């Protein structure tokens, strides 16, 4: 199957226009579920990316011991210390605290900074099911992919799920699902994995990003930076969850549009748009910082990457400077 690249004009239709009569939440409420005492930066990168792209509200649902640290990173992110590691057991009422928040969200990302604690993995297994029951778009990255390797039924057939594995994570997931990809191209292997999981969207990160739901294939070859610092995947997850949230608002008719995008195309388009922006932000950061580039530098370029790609296409209402 030949690969494609969607038009920028098509992707821009998913972006909510700014106007004086919109309200808090109209541009998306998203969450990052992850973060433990060892990995506090990852969920921050997810949530901060969402806010910098224009989501209205970004939550982090993290382990209790991670919350005080994450709260110091930004006053703009709402941090909920609901997760409990094995060391903080026994504890009850975790699901009862998370469920009402899921009810308010437009999309959720899971796995960034989660770690390998069994108690945290148990909660994430429940959260994946809970999100699916609500029809909530779902980004799964990092340690959540390990959970899916052992429990593929959690997302099998769920078209609202986007998996974002890098090369080693992709290979481990294929091995866990008994897929022989030894003689396959990256595109073919990604399609095989998407089909094995019932048509979920796979974003196979790499030199180019391959995005497929098994039926269609997009290849994002946007220039990126040359650094491979930790945290870049979390920035991508933040971009994906934001565009998925906007896609839900698009489908609900939250603003006037021509309805040119078929609703079953939204997930693939959201994933491609996110890859393009994350790669461009990486390029801008590397152009400025070179070998010293860190993910915090890439995060600082997210808004510029967005403006470079979409600003001229959007008919936003801008406040008067007078």
Care to describe what's here?
This protein has 322 residues and is of the alpha/beta class. It is built from twelve helices and nine strands. A nine-stranded mixed beta sheet has the order 3-2-1-4-5-6-7-8-9, with helices on both faces. Strand 2 (57-63), helix 3 (67-71) and strand 3 form a beta-alpha-beta unit. Helix 2 (41-53) crosses helix 9 and helix 6 (143-150) runs parallel beside helix 7. The protein starts with 7 loop residues before the first helix and ends in a 12-residue tail after the last helix. The mean pLDDT is 95.
Secondary-structure blueprint:
Elements: H1 8-12, E1 29-33, H2 41-53, E2 57-63, H3 67-71, E3 78-83, H4 94-104, E4 107-110, H5 118-133, E5 138-140, H6 143-150, E6 161-163, H7 167-176, H8 186-196, E7 201-204, E8 209-212, E9 217-220, H9 232-251, H10 266-289, H11 295-299, H12 302-310
Parallel strand pairs: 1-2, 1-4, 2-3, 4-5, 5-6, 6-7
Antiparallel strand pairs: 7-8, 8-9
Helix pairs in contact: 2-9, 4-5, 6-7, 9-10, 10-12
